[in-house]
Amino acid sequence: MKIAVVGATGLVGSVMLRVLEERGFADNEIIAAASFRSVGKRIAFAGRELTVVSVDDAIAMRPDFAIFSAGAAASRQYAPLFAAAGTTVVDNSSAWRKDADKPLVVPEINIDAVGEDDRIIANPNCSTIQMVLALSGLHRRYGIKRLVISTYQSITGTGVKAVRQLQEEEAWHAARVAEAGGEVPSQLDAMGEHSQAYPYQIFRNLFPHGGDFQADGYTTEEQKLVDETHKILRDPDIAITATVARVPVVGGHSESVNVELRNEFDINEVRGIIASTPGVVLYDDPSQNRYPMPIMSEGRDEVFVGRVRRDLSQPKTLNLWVVADNLRKGAATNAIEIMEELIKRR
Nearest-CA neighbor of 69 among 3, 132, 123? Predict the structure, then answer.
Protein backbone atom coordinates (compact mmCIF):
# COMPACT_ATOMS: atom_id res chain seq x y z
CA MET A 1 0.00 0.00 0.00
CA LYS A 2 0.91 3.62 -0.43
CA ILE A 3 0.29 5.91 2.57
CA ALA A 4 0.89 9.66 2.68
CA VAL A 5 1.44 11.56 5.92
CA VAL A 6 0.61 15.21 5.26
CA GLY A 7 2.26 17.46 7.83
CA ALA A 8 4.96 14.86 8.43
CA THR A 9 7.45 17.37 9.88
CA GLY A 10 5.09 18.58 12.62
CA LEU A 11 4.68 17.31 16.16
CA VAL A 12 1.67 15.08 15.42
CA GLY A 13 3.03 14.10 12.01
CA SER A 14 6.20 12.73 13.58
CA VAL A 15 4.10 10.66 15.98
CA MET A 16 2.01 9.40 13.05
CA LEU A 17 5.17 8.08 11.41
CA ARG A 18 6.23 6.43 14.67
CA VAL A 19 2.83 4.77 15.10
CA LEU A 20 2.84 3.55 11.48
CA GLU A 21 6.18 1.88 12.13
CA GLU A 22 5.00 0.36 15.41
CA ARG A 23 1.80 -1.02 13.88
CA GLY A 24 3.43 -2.89 11.04
CA PHE A 25 3.34 -0.44 8.14
CA ALA A 26 7.11 -0.10 7.76
CA ASP A 27 7.21 -2.18 4.58
CA ASN A 28 4.60 -0.05 2.83
CA GLU A 29 5.43 2.93 0.64
CA ILE A 30 5.27 5.89 3.02
CA ILE A 31 5.10 9.39 1.52
CA ALA A 32 6.18 12.21 3.84
CA ALA A 33 4.54 15.44 2.66
CA ALA A 34 4.72 18.94 4.08
CA SER A 35 4.74 22.60 3.11
CA PHE A 36 7.15 23.92 0.49
CA ARG A 37 9.62 25.17 3.10
CA SER A 38 10.14 21.57 4.28
CA VAL A 39 10.44 19.95 0.83
CA GLY A 40 13.75 18.08 0.51
CA LYS A 41 14.21 17.50 4.23
CA ARG A 42 14.97 13.94 5.25
CA ILE A 43 13.08 12.16 8.02
CA ALA A 44 14.10 8.93 9.74
CA PHE A 45 11.55 6.14 9.42
CA ALA A 46 11.93 2.42 10.17
CA GLY A 47 15.68 2.35 9.65
CA ARG A 48 15.64 4.37 6.47
CA GLU A 49 15.14 7.97 5.44
CA LEU A 50 12.12 9.55 3.78
CA THR A 51 12.55 12.64 1.64
CA VAL A 52 9.82 15.20 2.23
CA VAL A 53 7.79 16.03 -0.88
CA SER A 54 5.25 18.76 -1.57
CA VAL A 55 1.56 18.06 -1.03
CA ASP A 56 0.94 18.49 -4.75
CA ASP A 57 3.54 15.82 -5.52
CA ALA A 58 1.95 13.52 -2.92
CA ILE A 59 -1.43 13.90 -4.62
CA ALA A 60 0.12 13.02 -7.97
CA MET A 61 1.49 9.80 -6.44
CA ARG A 62 -2.12 8.66 -5.78
CA PRO A 63 -1.71 7.06 -2.35
CA ASP A 64 -4.33 4.67 -1.00
CA PHE A 65 -4.59 6.74 2.19
CA ALA A 66 -3.53 10.22 3.23
CA ILE A 67 -3.35 10.95 6.94
CA PHE A 68 -3.46 14.69 7.57
CA SER A 69 -2.07 16.76 10.41
CA ALA A 70 -1.37 20.02 8.63
CA GLY A 71 -4.02 22.38 9.99
CA ALA A 72 -7.55 23.19 8.89
CA ALA A 73 -6.62 25.53 6.04
CA ALA A 74 -4.37 22.95 4.39
CA SER A 75 -6.96 20.24 4.90
CA ARG A 76 -9.71 22.27 3.26
CA GLN A 77 -7.43 23.02 0.32
CA TYR A 78 -5.86 19.62 -0.25
CA ALA A 79 -8.12 16.90 1.18
CA PRO A 80 -10.68 17.23 -1.65
CA LEU A 81 -7.86 16.99 -4.19
CA PHE A 82 -6.63 13.74 -2.66
CA ALA A 83 -10.22 12.44 -2.55
CA ALA A 84 -10.72 13.32 -6.23
CA ALA A 85 -7.61 11.25 -7.02
CA GLY A 86 -9.16 8.23 -5.29
CA THR A 87 -7.32 8.57 -1.97
CA THR A 88 -9.09 8.08 1.34
CA VAL A 89 -8.23 10.96 3.69
CA VAL A 90 -8.20 10.75 7.49
CA ASP A 91 -7.94 14.34 8.67
CA ASN A 92 -6.78 15.36 12.14
CA SER A 93 -7.76 19.05 11.86
CA SER A 94 -11.04 20.78 12.70
CA ALA A 95 -11.79 21.35 9.00
CA TRP A 96 -14.42 18.64 8.49
CA ARG A 97 -15.58 17.64 11.95
CA LYS A 98 -18.83 19.60 11.92
CA ASP A 99 -19.76 18.78 8.32
CA ALA A 100 -22.91 16.68 8.33
CA ASP A 101 -21.73 14.57 5.38
CA LYS A 102 -18.28 13.79 6.84
CA PRO A 103 -18.01 10.98 9.40
CA LEU A 104 -16.33 11.87 12.70
CA VAL A 105 -14.89 8.65 14.03
CA VAL A 106 -13.51 6.94 17.10
CA PRO A 107 -13.15 3.39 15.73
CA GLU A 108 -14.16 1.58 18.92
CA ILE A 109 -17.44 3.54 18.93
CA ASN A 110 -18.65 4.40 15.43
CA ILE A 111 -16.54 3.06 12.58
CA ASP A 112 -19.87 2.07 11.01
CA ALA A 113 -20.42 5.79 10.31
CA VAL A 114 -17.95 5.48 7.40
CA GLY A 115 -19.71 4.54 4.19
CA GLU A 116 -18.17 2.92 1.13
CA ASP A 117 -18.12 6.21 -0.77
CA ASP A 118 -16.65 8.34 2.03
CA ARG A 119 -13.27 9.71 1.01
CA ILE A 120 -12.75 12.30 3.77
CA ILE A 121 -13.03 11.12 7.37
CA ALA A 122 -12.58 13.45 10.32
CA ASN A 123 -10.46 12.57 13.35
CA PRO A 124 -11.96 14.15 16.50
CA ASN A 125 -10.28 16.60 18.84
CA CYS A 126 -7.88 14.96 21.29
CA SER A 127 -9.92 15.86 24.38
CA THR A 128 -13.07 14.50 22.81
CA ILE A 129 -11.54 11.18 21.79
CA GLN A 130 -10.40 10.15 25.26
CA MET A 131 -13.61 11.29 26.93
CA VAL A 132 -16.14 9.67 24.59
CA LEU A 133 -14.18 6.41 24.58
CA ALA A 134 -14.28 6.31 28.38
CA LEU A 135 -18.00 7.15 28.39
CA SER A 136 -19.22 5.11 25.43
CA GLY A 137 -20.12 1.97 27.36
CA LEU A 138 -21.92 3.96 30.06
CA HIS A 139 -23.95 5.79 27.43
CA ARG A 140 -25.06 2.51 25.84
CA ARG A 141 -26.02 1.03 29.21
CA TYR A 142 -27.58 3.96 31.07
CA GLY A 143 -27.84 6.89 28.68
CA ILE A 144 -26.03 10.16 29.40
CA LYS A 145 -28.14 13.16 30.33
CA ARG A 146 -25.52 15.81 31.12
CA LEU A 147 -21.74 16.28 31.19
CA VAL A 148 -19.75 18.88 33.12
CA ILE A 149 -16.16 18.77 31.86
CA SER A 150 -12.98 20.40 33.08
CA THR A 151 -9.83 19.69 31.07
CA TYR A 152 -6.18 20.04 32.02
CA GLN A 153 -4.50 20.00 28.62
CA SER A 154 -0.87 19.37 27.77
CA ILE A 155 1.11 22.03 25.94
CA THR A 156 1.82 19.46 23.22
CA GLY A 157 -1.76 19.98 22.07
CA THR A 158 -0.68 23.44 20.91
CA GLY A 159 2.39 22.19 19.06
CA VAL A 160 6.14 22.58 18.83
CA LYS A 161 6.08 26.31 19.56
CA ALA A 162 4.40 25.72 22.93
CA VAL A 163 6.93 23.05 23.87
CA ARG A 164 9.70 25.46 22.97
CA GLN A 165 8.11 28.20 25.07
CA LEU A 166 8.02 26.00 28.17
CA GLN A 167 11.59 24.83 27.61
CA GLU A 168 12.87 28.39 27.20
CA GLU A 169 10.99 29.59 30.28
CA GLU A 170 12.35 26.70 32.36
CA ALA A 171 15.88 27.40 31.13
CA TRP A 172 15.56 31.12 31.82
CA HIS A 173 14.36 30.47 35.36
CA ALA A 174 17.11 27.91 36.02
CA ALA A 175 19.73 30.38 34.82
CA ARG A 176 18.40 33.12 37.11
CA VAL A 177 18.42 30.72 40.07
CA ALA A 178 22.04 29.83 39.35
CA GLU A 179 23.00 33.49 39.11
CA ALA A 180 21.21 34.37 42.34
CA GLY A 181 22.46 31.34 44.23
CA GLY A 182 18.90 30.45 45.19
CA GLU A 183 15.24 30.85 44.33
CA VAL A 184 13.96 33.74 42.22
CA PRO A 185 10.36 34.79 41.61
CA SER A 186 8.33 32.54 39.31
CA GLN A 187 6.96 35.38 37.21
CA LEU A 188 9.09 35.89 34.13
CA ASP A 189 8.35 39.54 33.35
CA ALA A 190 12.03 40.24 32.78
CA MET A 191 12.60 37.36 30.39
CA GLY A 192 12.31 39.40 27.23
CA GLU A 193 11.81 37.94 23.78
CA HIS A 194 11.12 34.23 23.56
CA SER A 195 8.96 31.79 21.59
CA GLN A 196 5.49 32.88 22.62
CA ALA A 197 2.77 30.35 21.82
CA TYR A 198 0.53 31.62 24.61
CA PRO A 199 -0.52 35.06 25.87
CA TYR A 200 1.10 34.28 29.25
CA GLN A 201 3.98 32.23 30.56
CA ILE A 202 3.15 28.54 30.99
CA PHE A 203 6.08 27.70 33.29
CA ARG A 204 4.76 27.34 36.86
CA ASN A 205 1.41 28.53 35.62
CA LEU A 206 -1.87 27.46 34.05
CA PHE A 207 -4.70 29.39 32.45
CA PRO A 208 -8.35 28.66 31.56
CA HIS A 209 -7.87 29.25 27.87
CA GLY A 210 -7.57 26.81 24.99
CA GLY A 211 -8.53 27.79 21.46
CA ASP A 212 -10.14 31.09 20.49
CA PHE A 213 -12.81 32.88 22.49
CA GLN A 214 -16.29 32.98 20.99
CA ALA A 215 -18.94 35.66 21.42
CA ASP A 216 -20.67 33.59 24.11
CA GLY A 217 -17.53 33.52 26.29
CA TYR A 218 -16.67 29.90 25.58
CA THR A 219 -13.62 28.87 23.57
CA THR A 220 -13.48 26.86 20.38
CA GLU A 221 -11.80 24.02 22.31
CA GLU A 222 -14.75 23.95 24.70
CA GLN A 223 -17.23 24.05 21.83
CA LYS A 224 -15.54 21.06 20.18
CA LEU A 225 -16.25 18.95 23.25
CA VAL A 226 -19.94 19.78 22.87
CA ASP A 227 -20.37 19.39 19.12
CA GLU A 228 -18.13 16.38 18.64
CA THR A 229 -19.58 14.42 21.57
CA HIS A 230 -23.07 14.88 20.17
CA LYS A 231 -21.97 13.66 16.74
CA ILE A 232 -19.88 10.65 17.83
CA LEU A 233 -22.38 9.38 20.42
CA ARG A 234 -25.26 10.19 18.05
CA ASP A 235 -27.19 11.96 20.76
CA PRO A 236 -27.73 15.72 20.36
CA ASP A 237 -29.83 15.82 23.54
CA ILE A 238 -26.89 15.39 25.92
CA ALA A 239 -26.44 18.65 27.85
CA ILE A 240 -22.73 19.54 27.90
CA THR A 241 -20.71 22.36 29.43
CA ALA A 242 -16.92 22.56 29.48
CA THR A 243 -13.98 24.58 30.75
CA VAL A 244 -10.56 24.08 29.14
CA ALA A 245 -7.32 24.80 30.99
CA ARG A 246 -3.78 24.66 29.65
CA VAL A 247 -1.21 23.25 32.09
CA PRO A 248 2.62 22.97 31.98
CA VAL A 249 2.50 19.24 31.23
CA VAL A 250 4.03 17.35 28.30
CA GLY A 251 2.71 13.80 28.70
CA GLY A 252 -1.01 14.02 27.97
CA HIS A 253 -4.41 15.54 28.65
CA SER A 254 -6.39 15.03 31.86
CA GLU A 255 -10.11 15.56 32.32
CA SER A 256 -12.47 15.75 35.27
CA VAL A 257 -15.88 14.62 34.00
CA ASN A 258 -19.12 14.83 35.96
CA VAL A 259 -21.63 12.47 34.32
CA GLU A 260 -25.37 12.64 34.97
CA LEU A 261 -27.01 9.49 33.65
CA ARG A 262 -30.60 9.03 32.53
CA ASN A 263 -31.01 5.84 34.55
CA GLU A 264 -29.86 4.77 37.99
CA PHE A 265 -26.61 2.81 38.12
CA ASP A 266 -24.69 0.38 40.26
CA ILE A 267 -21.18 1.70 40.89
CA ASN A 268 -19.61 -1.75 40.61
CA GLU A 269 -21.34 -2.29 37.29
CA VAL A 270 -20.06 1.10 36.15
CA ARG A 271 -16.53 0.06 36.99
CA GLY A 272 -16.98 -3.19 35.11
CA ILE A 273 -18.29 -1.42 32.02
CA ILE A 274 -15.36 0.99 31.98
CA ALA A 275 -12.84 -1.82 32.51
CA SER A 276 -14.30 -3.86 29.63
CA THR A 277 -14.36 -0.99 27.11
CA PRO A 278 -11.83 -1.67 24.34
CA GLY A 279 -8.91 0.75 24.53
CA VAL A 280 -9.70 1.81 28.11
CA VAL A 281 -7.80 0.89 31.27
CA LEU A 282 -9.49 1.26 34.66
CA TYR A 283 -6.69 2.38 36.97
CA ASP A 284 -8.43 3.12 40.23
CA ASP A 285 -7.43 2.13 43.75
CA PRO A 286 -7.51 5.10 46.15
CA SER A 287 -6.13 3.01 49.02
CA GLN A 288 -2.90 2.61 47.06
CA ASN A 289 -2.93 6.11 45.51
CA ARG A 290 -3.60 4.51 42.13
CA TYR A 291 -5.13 6.99 39.70
CA PRO A 292 -4.24 8.08 36.16
CA MET A 293 -1.65 10.79 35.58
CA PRO A 294 -0.35 12.21 32.31
CA ILE A 295 3.18 11.03 33.12
CA MET A 296 1.97 7.41 32.97
CA SER A 297 0.03 7.89 29.74
CA GLU A 298 2.88 9.40 27.72
CA GLY A 299 3.82 7.16 24.81
CA ARG A 300 0.86 4.83 25.34
CA ASP A 301 -2.35 4.36 23.34
CA GLU A 302 -4.74 3.45 26.14
CA VAL A 303 -7.23 5.82 27.76
CA PHE A 304 -6.87 5.61 31.56
CA VAL A 305 -9.83 6.13 33.90
CA GLY A 306 -9.78 6.51 37.66
CA ARG A 307 -11.35 8.30 40.64
CA VAL A 308 -14.65 6.60 39.77
CA ARG A 309 -17.19 7.59 42.40
CA ARG A 310 -20.79 8.50 42.88
CA ASP A 311 -21.63 12.21 43.00
CA LEU A 312 -23.20 12.54 46.46
CA SER A 313 -24.81 15.88 45.65
CA GLN A 314 -27.45 14.56 43.23
CA PRO A 315 -28.88 11.25 41.97
CA LYS A 316 -27.80 9.24 38.93
CA THR A 317 -24.49 11.10 38.72
CA LEU A 318 -20.85 10.07 39.00
CA ASN A 319 -17.37 11.58 38.68
CA LEU A 320 -14.51 10.28 36.54
CA TRP A 321 -10.90 11.26 35.92
CA VAL A 322 -9.75 10.51 32.36
CA VAL A 323 -6.16 10.69 31.05
CA ALA A 324 -4.58 9.90 27.67
CA ASP A 325 -1.59 10.82 25.52
CA ASN A 326 -3.07 13.53 23.31
CA LEU A 327 -0.53 12.99 20.53
CA ARG A 328 -1.20 9.26 20.28
CA LYS A 329 -4.78 8.10 20.99
CA GLY A 330 -5.81 11.74 20.94
CA ALA A 331 -4.50 12.20 17.39
CA ALA A 332 -2.08 9.89 15.54
CA THR A 333 -3.14 6.48 16.83
CA ASN A 334 -6.86 7.13 16.43
CA ALA A 335 -6.32 8.25 12.82
CA ILE A 336 -4.25 5.17 11.99
CA GLU A 337 -6.78 2.90 13.72
CA ILE A 338 -9.45 4.36 11.42
CA MET A 339 -7.25 3.48 8.45
CA GLU A 340 -6.69 -0.03 9.78
CA GLU A 341 -10.42 -0.63 10.08
CA LEU A 342 -10.97 0.54 6.52
CA ILE A 343 -8.18 -1.73 5.27
CA LYS A 344 -10.02 -4.69 6.82
CA ARG A 345 -13.00 -3.91 4.60
CA ARG A 346 -10.98 -4.28 1.41
Answer: 123
Give catalytic status of residue 139 as yes or no.
Answer: no
What's the pLDDT tens digit per position in 247-286?
A: 999 989 999 999 999 999 999 999 999 999 999 999 999 9
What global pTM score does this model have?
Answer: 0.95
Three-class secondary structure of residue 311 per DSSP: coil
- 235: confidence class by pLDDT, cuts 50, 70, 90: very high
* The one catalytic residue among 139, 173, 230, 253: 253
Asked if 293 and 300 touch (Cβ cutoff 8 Å), the reply is no
Q: Which fold has domain 128-158+202-326?
A: Dihydrodipicolinate Reductase; domain 2 (3.30.360)
Closest CA to 141 of 261, 283, 258: 261
CATH 3.40.50.720 fits domain 2-123+331-345: yes
**How far out from the chain centre does Cα 263 lie?**
30
Domain map (residue ranges) of the chain: 2-123+331-345, 128-158+202-326
State the catalytic residue, choosing from 126, 194, 209, 230: 126
Is-catalytic flag, 230?
A: no
